[in-house]
Amino acid sequence: MKKLIETIKNIFKIEELRKRIVYTVLLILVYRLGCFIVLPGIDATMLANLQSNTQSGLIGLLNMFSGGAFGNASIFALGVMPYISASIVIQLLGVFVPYFRKLQMEGQSGIKKMNQLTRYLTILILCIQGPAYMASIHSQIPGAAFVATSQLGWSNFMFNIVSTIILMAGSMFVMWLGERITDRGIGNGISLIIMIGIIARFPYAIAAEVSEKLATTNGGFLLLIVEFIVWFFVLVAAIMLVQGVRRVPVQYAKRIVGNRQYGGVRQYIPLKINAAGVMPIIFAQALMLFPMLFSRFDATRGIAAALSNYTGFWYNFVFALMVIIFTYFYTAVTVNPTMMAEEMKKNGGFIPGVKPGKKTVEYLDSIMSKVTLPGSIFLALISILPAFAMLLGVNNQFASFFGGTSLLILVGVVLDTLQQIEGYLLMRHYDGLMKTGRLTGRSGM
To answer: Are residues 377 and 345 in the same domain?
Structure first.
């Protein structure tokens, strides 16, 4: 405890770090306040049905990422997901389209252009998702809830147009908050906003689980203790998955310029065991909604029912298989051994015992394939752990924190943010956050 208090004091002794933390907290408070501001013209007291329908599936995932704003019909209902979707599309285009691949190679100017294109694509996605969201809430809450149409005489078309503009503006404002946090705060702004939305649900999940277990007389308290112990080990496993890297040694050639020596040192390329992050789980969850479309037909109703049961064998088997497949796909898209080999050769580096050029590309590709297999299997197991938790009697709300997207995002973002804070401490010659050794964040490529 004494070490913790001393570390907190050291953090606030650094003026720049103190200002960044305060700035980040203030912008997060603005975001959380906006999550509870309901769209103008909608009665907030009549949203119970909408909130109950946003607790599971892909809709539940969107509601989680928006911090509950999706289920509150908030001005921030669409959150940062359109921006994330646009970023993924631009990233994929960088692999398949020569123009975007060229922008990636142009350094800071290319990144600036790609960021601008991402914003334009975000607006286009919002133009589609905004009306879709309005159509969704029209079908889920009673007509009397729309005060603008029932009492003020607005037409549904006019109300939807105004609401869509507000939703678009709200989402762009959230994106702006995230960018400001990244530039002037601490941590990655977009990731922090998502994490705050997830954390906002955590106290309610804990409270629901504690009250449910304590209400039972047949060893409820003991079961609660066992659940927290298991959850702790799952958390440790998630940290291992996020942190795990395979370090490939790289030797740089020695160069002498004047009286100075450059190069001649050995560094490492950290190839992550889980380079795809949480994207395979998100893709798989999105595709698992498609079987519901076939529930209307008699011939496919049984298959649709089996693949729609979140705790059933076939749902979790197919879900885990898709996570493994998407892990390989997304890793192949984001990790480019050819580009790494070219950059290495350009800077006079080589892998000991491996010839530069094609052999280096094959070597890196081979290592990436080998480390991705256990990483993808481990990720698939973590993704289906919430289903096992529900089968064993854990409350649905708390079960979502036993694995899946929620836990991986929490672990990754917290580690990244703590690593930045530790960097400031070490730069000012203070001790790091850990008593022994440095805190290792997620290694970037």
So the answer is: yes
Do 137 and 86 share a structural domain?
A: yes
Tally of domains within the chain = 2
Mean pLDDT for the stretch of residues 345-365: 85
CATH number of residue 131's parent domain? 1.10.3370.10
Instruction: Return the minimum-mean-pLDDT range out of 119-123, 157-161, 224-228, 408-412.
Output: 408-412
Mean pLDDT is highest, among 101-110, 120-129, 397-406, for 120-129
Q: Do the domain assignments include residue 1?
A: no
Q: 62-74 pLDDT, tens per residue?
A: 677 777 787 888 8
**Could you list the residue range(s) of the whole structural domain that residue 201 is in?**
11-210
Shared domain check, 361 and 326: yes
Query: How many angstroms separate the CA atoms of 380 and 67, rounded?
Result: 25
- The predicted model scores a pTM of 0.78
